[in-house]
């Protein structure tokens, strides 16, 4: 971080080329991500019931540097944490008839490619403009799974299941027609904070 700050404050003191700065050219980037995770888990058994519960805590530090069209270093930093509890249940009605239920929470991280973190890309031939969105939040999902399994033999299984996923911060690509330099262009970006729900039978 100190090196990039020094470079931005004293650009005239450096004669490095784009390749020497980041190892790539304009539009490429260097990124790093540190994830610190801790979890706690416990198991409870009572008769035909087995319950496994716990929680996972994750802290994430993200850093990204790239060159803009003016050959200046642009940096992005983000830090966030999540607590993800879970509970898994199993009940044996019979030795060959088992019911399962699961509730858990998960986190997904967005692609750090040019679409999200890169510079604004203007294609005058195709008349398109791609705008990044470094403010995207991690994708979060709360999941519920239910299943009933019948083991009909050593190699036989008949199973029925239902699942639902409540998703937050899903990345949604949007496009709109704009006027740029007196001409019609299509502007594309990625919106943050989109929610959705998925459910189905298996």
Question: How are the SSEs ordered, and which strands pair?
Answer:
Blueprint: H1 2-9, H2 18-22, E1 29-46, E2 49-67, E3 73-94, E4 97-108, H3 114-117, E5 121-123, E6 128-131, E7 139-153, E8 156-180, E9 183-201
Parallel strand pairs: 6-9
Antiparallel strand pairs: 1-2, 2-3, 3-4, 4-7, 5-6, 7-8, 8-9
Please give the largest β-sheet.
9 strands, mixed
| Helix-strand string | HHEEEEHEEEEE
- What structural class results from the helix and strand content? mainly beta
Instruction: Please state the CA-atom Rg, rounded to the nearest Å.
Output: 25 Å
Beta-strand content: over 45%
What is the number of beta strands?
A: 9
Mean pLDDT across residues? 83
What is the spatial order of strands in the main beta sheet?
1-2-3-4-7-8-9-6-5
Number of helical runs?
Answer: 3
Helix content: under 10%
Distance between the termini: 50 Å
Any low-confidence stretches, pLDDT <50, length ≥5? Answer: 16-24
Q: Judging from the principal axes of the Cα atoms, what is the shape?
A: elongated
Descriptive overview:
By secondary structure, the chain is mainly β. It is 8% helix and 68% strand. It has three helices and nine strands. It has helices at 2-9, 18-22, 114-117, and strands at 29-46, 49-67, 73-94, 97-108, 121-123, 128-131, 139-153, 156-180, 183-201. The chain has a nine-stranded mixed beta sheet with strand order 1-2-3-4-7-8-9-6-5. A hairpin with a 4-residue loop joins strand 5 (121-123) and strand 6. The longest helix has 8 residues, at 2-9. The protein starts with a helix and ends with a strand. Residues 16-24 have low confidence and may be disordered.
């Amino acid at each position: 971080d100190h090196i990039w700050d020094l470079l931005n404050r004293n650009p005239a003191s450096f004669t490095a080329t784009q390749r020497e700065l980041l190892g790539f050219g304009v539009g490429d980037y260097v990124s790093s991500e540190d994830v610190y995770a801790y979890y706690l888990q416990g198991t409870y058994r009572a008769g035909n019931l087995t319950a496994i519960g716990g929680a996972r805590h994750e802290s994430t530090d993200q850093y990204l540097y790239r060159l803009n069209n003016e050959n200046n270093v642009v940096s992005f930093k983000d830090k966030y944490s999540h607590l993800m509890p879970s509970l898994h249940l199993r009940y044996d009605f019979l030795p060959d008839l088992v019911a399962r239920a699961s509730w858990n929470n998960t986190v997904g991280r967005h692609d750090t490619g040019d679409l999200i973190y890169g510079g604004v890309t203007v294609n005058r031939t195709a008349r398109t403009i791609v705008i990044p969105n470094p403010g995207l939040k991690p994708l979060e999902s709360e999941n519920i799974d239910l299943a009933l399994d019948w083991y009909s033999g050593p190699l036989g299984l008949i199973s029925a299941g239902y699942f639902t996923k409540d998703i937050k911060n899903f990345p949604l690509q949007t496009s709109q027609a704009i006027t740029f330099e007196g001409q019609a262009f299509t502007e594309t970006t990625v919106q943050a904070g989109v929610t959705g729900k998925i459910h189905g039978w298996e």
